[in-house]
Amino acid sequence: MRKAAFALLVAVSTAAPAGAGDVPELHGHVKLQSSLQLFRHDDLGALLAGSHPDDSTLDLRLDTVWRRSRWDLAVDAQLLAIGGDGVNARSNPLAGDLAGFLLGVPTPSDQLQWLDLSHTFSSGGSRLVFGRLDRLSVGYTGDRLVMRLGRQALSWGGGLVFQVLDLFNPFPPTVIDTDYKPGTDMLTAQWLLAGGDDLQAVVVPRRPGPGRRVSADASSLAVKWHHFAGSTEVELMGARHYADTVAGIGASGNLGGGVWRVNATYTALAHGGRVTSLLANLDRSWVWGGRNAYGFVEYFRNGFGTPSLDRGAAALPESLLVRLARGELFNLGRNELAGGLRFEWTPRLALEPTVIVNLDDLSSMLLFRVTFDWLENLQLDAGLQTGAGPRGTEYGGVPVGFPSPYAAPGRRIWLRLSRYF
User: Fold this and answer.
1) Are 154 and 135 in contact, with CB atoms under 8 Å apart?
2) Is the model more confident about 164 or about 194?
3) What pLDDT digit, counting tens, does each position of 21-69 carry?
4) Which residues make Cβ contacts (< 8 Å) with residue 267, sequence separation at least 6?
5) C-alpha torsion 397→399→400→403, nearest 10
């Protein structure tokens, strides 16, 4: 099936009529990143990787696009080489899915996607080298119809830190690198309507487990209508996501020189139960002391979350654990608030503080990032992330066993040099 799908992609692209723009577009990046984490002695991260694990990553990416008339073929290849204590902790039987969550180690596998386009070149001890095709898709752009088949990225909704309408590989709130959203195998179609409205449809085939056939209960089908009502934009979404039924609505508009957004979803769980989630934010830009500034505030009502975490991970709802494992949700709390600022100290130097607060237990996650445009296409980034709060809270540490190690974010210091071409 996977070989047939790949052959279909190539055949469709090469069969497209020749025309202007046959020369491929090439671009990409090289990134070097180093990170150091600090855990308390009874943190789960310390038991897995030591009290101060460090990791280094080399990220190579090459993006290519061939265009012929109304057709295009996009192929993005990525190679990651990672070495350090976090990689070594992946083999710890206690780690499970928590290694990536606590230590930031990516998963080198596409075994649950329609196509397995990843390959591990070297794995053992404290090293991991793997590559993947993060984009592989054929697209058609007509006067009203736009279609794309294959691995691609799609984002829905208006979340700035948290996500409600974005069901497909959303970014975690504490993600360091947001240049590229991870690709997902899907078929997308968009029909442009009169007046600026449009309809989008998405089919995402998945496997319920490694080596298993694509299953309807593990796949997704979603439709979204985008409508302009004066200065307000409205989105209506309906989806069959895994075996659940999801209805969503979103709206956005202008307010006081900024932009407001509200998103909400209602999920009918396959095994019973109804869950409602809500997101609302406001952001705007202004000039502060002669310097450019941008700020935002966002509230997230996580219907799958829990208002109390002092009973530990064993008491978390099954519906929440499933979405954590699938990478759809990243927060445990019921009510979350985030606020952030980007301040351009100079045209080349920007400071970005962000805070995330669990409104139920008042624990918090503090993030600070400095971005320096060193030279043309050369950028230097550095940052600090730290959790704050008592034990038994989301960002202070959630008990995961007895005697209790705690799943806590600890402190992370990181530095990255990026060269774009």
Assistant:
1) no
2) 164
3) 567 889 999 999 999 999 999 998 888 888 999 999 999 999 999 999 9
4) 241, 244, 245, 246, 274, 275, 276, 277, 303
5) 120
Residue 403 class from Cβ within 10 Å (0-12 exposed, 13-18 middle, 19+ buried)? exposed
Do the beta carbons of residue 406 and residue 398 sit within 8 Å?
yes
Query: How many CB atoms within 10 Å of residue 92?
Result: 13
- Maximum pairwise Cα distance, the chain: 68
Instruction: Please provide the average confidence, as pLDDT, over all residues in the chain.
Output: 91
**What does the alpha-carbon distance between residue 396 and residue 255 come to, in Å, rounded to a whole number?**
36
What are the boundaries of each domain within the chain? 2-420
Q: With the CA atoms of 295, 300, 305 and 307 taken in that order, what torsion angle do they form, in degrees rounded to the nearest 10? A: 90
- The secondary structure element, H or E, covering residue 73 is strand 71-84
Q: What is the dihedral of CA 171, 174, 177, 180, to 10 degrees?
A: 0
Question: Do residues 80 and 131 make contact, with C-beta atoms less than 8 angstroms apart?
Answer: yes
Read off the pLDDT of residues 318-377 as tens digits, 9 standing for 90 and up: 999 999 989 899 999 999 999 999 999 999 999 999 999 999 999 999 999 999 999 999
Q: What is the pTM of this model?
A: 0.90
Name the nearest CA neighbour of 396 among 405, 384, 408, 413.
Answer: 408
Non-local CB neighbours of 30 within 8 Å, separated by 6+ positions: 58, 59, 60, 61, 418, 419, 421
Give the position of tokens 């984490």.
Answer: 37
Whether domain 2-420 has CATH 2.60.450: no
